[in-house]
Design goal:
By secondary structure, this protein is α+β, with helices and mostly antiparallel strands. It has 13 helices and 14 strands. Strands 1, 2, 3, 4, 5, 6, 7 and 14 form an eight-stranded mixed β-sheet that branches. The protein has a six-stranded antiparallel β-sheet with strand order 8-9-11-10-12-13, with helices on both faces. Strand 6 and strand 7 form a beta hairpin.
Length: 381
């Protein structure tokens, strides 16, 4: 039997999903809808909506179609959709208008990090804070289950109803984000171990101790130069790079400043500057990961970033020379003011780019493709 194309797949879901849902859902409407997501990409969602509710979760089916193409049975996919819908049921009394009330929403506002240029359409009517060529956006977390998230992005009308400034919104969001989904920093090997541990335990029918022994034989030797920064939920964890306290702790652990490779909107790869990897190799690593392993809606940036532990700022690593020249010029101007010398400041010469290559870069590229597991994104956005 030939495989269905995507349109046929979506229609099959709409036609059959009620057969997998409890009785209370039988009178609900099943709607197929396109939803604008990160990087201005459009995803296809199924929405199962009742007459007595003003909100319904959007269940995205694009990834499920990939599973179907790879051999997953339609029966299994329909059961998954039904489970997601039931576990994310919104009470009839839920009033979506409460998101306009700051007192009710303030404890649920969180921050995310996205690419600025790739989200121009979504950001036209939304508050955001620019960080280099990235943007911090703000979202009201309506509900979190063990395997899903539901949220609404704060748009300008919502911010106006809050009666606060964008700066205040940013401060509240960053505090909530750290408290509710604290940053997690582990070696790449530890992250890979956490990722495959449940599968090994299930497939081999063994406990954690025996599984660790098996995994030791599966994973390559640890690379002390590659680390993963995400959050406790492993979803939208790239914003953890803006947590100054966490970044300072990482720099202290690494013994100096660090480079940040944006693996996706969900996590970053951290490399100590002392590892000696060239910027060209690091950028190549990021671009290869984005091109081969990251879905378009999950991509954050093709650039590499650096964290200055002295100034506590993140900056584009390819702008290091310009940054240093501007700092030198600023210092010269300061000296002239002190000495009362009215001469024009001269820009210092630019530093040469690093040329040395790390012997293990090629192997590290393969390891850096590992991406921590994600929750199902069941959103209203």
């Amino acid at each position: 039997m030939s495989k269905m194309n995507f349109d046929e797949f979506k229609q099959a879901i709409a036609d059959q999903i009620k057969d997998y849902l409890p009785e209370k859902y039988q009178d609900m409407d099943v709607v197929l809808q396109q939803v604008a997501k990160n990087n201005d990409t459009m995803l296809d969602a199924v929405m199962i909506t009742g007459q007595d509710s003003n909100v319904s979760p959007a269940i995205y089916v694009n990834g499920m179609y990939e599973d179907y193409q790879n051999g997953c049975e339609m029966d299994s996919i329909l059961k998954q959709i039904a489970d997601i819908r039931v576990s994310n049921d919104v009470p009839p009394e839920f009033d979506l208008s409460r998101i306009m009330d700051y007192d009710q929403a303030k404890d649920h506002i969180v921050a995310r990090l996205v690419n600025l240029d790739d989200n121009r359409l979504r950001l036209e009517n939304a508050p955001y804070t620019r960080v280099e060529d990235l943007a911090v956006t703000y979202h009201i977390d309506l509900k979190v289950q063990d395997d899903s998230t539901m949220s609404v992005q704060v748009m300008n009308p919502i911010l106006e109803s809050f009666g606060i400034t964008r700066e205040e919104l940013h401060e509240v969001a960053m505090v909530n984000t750290r408290e509710q989904t604290p940053p997690v920093f582990k070696s790449l090997m530890e992250t890979m171990r956490d990722l495959i541990m449940p599968e090994v335990m299930s497939a081999m029918n063994v406990g954690e101790k025996e599984a660790n022994v098996i995994i030791d034989g599966l994973l390559p030797s640890d690379d002390a130069n590659l680390w993963v920064l995400t959050n406790s939920e492993k979803i939208h964890g790239a914003v953890a790079m803006l947590d100054t306290k966490m970044m300072d702790e990482i720099c202290e652990q690494m013994g100096g400043d660090i480079m940040i490779l944006p693996s996706s909107i969900h996590e970053s790869i951290i490399v100590p500057k002392s590892a000696g990897m060239s910027l060209e190799d690091l950028e190549s690593m990021v671009q290869e990961i984005n091109a081969t392993d990251v879905r378009p809606e999950d991509r954050l940036s093709d650039h590499v970033y650096a964290y200055d532990s002295q100034e506590k700022v993140i900056y584009r690593a390819d702008q290091e020379e310009t940054r240093q020249a501007e700092k030198s010029a600023h210092k010269e101007k300061g000296k002239e003011k002190e000495n009362g010398v009215p001469k024009k400041a001269e820009r210092g010469s630019l530093k040469d780019r690093m040329k040395d290559k790390q012997k293990q870069v090629d192997a590290s590229r393969d390891m850096a493709k590992a991406v921590p597991g994600k929750k199902k994104d069941v959103g209203l956005e």
